[in-house]
Amino acid sequence: MNTGFLIHVSDDTLERYALQRIPEMDLAEVKEHLLSCLPCQIRLEEMDEYIKVMQAAIAEVSCVVGTF
Question: What residue ranges do the domains of the chain occupy?
Answer without folding.
Answer: 11-66
